[in-house]
Amino acid sequence: MRISDRILFDGVRANLQHNLGQVARVGEELASGRRLHVPSDDPVATAQALRHRRDLALNRQYLRGVDAARARLSAVDQALGGLTETLQRARELALQAGSGVLGTDQMQAIGVELNQLVQHAIQLGNTSFAGQFLFAGTKTTTPPFAPTGDPNVPTSVTYTGNAVAIAQDLGQGVQVRVDVPGNQAVLPAIQALIQLRDAVTAGDSVAATGPALSALDGALDTVLQVRGSVGARVNRLDAIGNQLTEEQTSLEGLRSGLEEIDVADTVVRLNAARNVYEAALGAAARAIQPSLLDFLR
Question: Whole-prediction pTM value?
Answer without folding.
Answer: 0.74
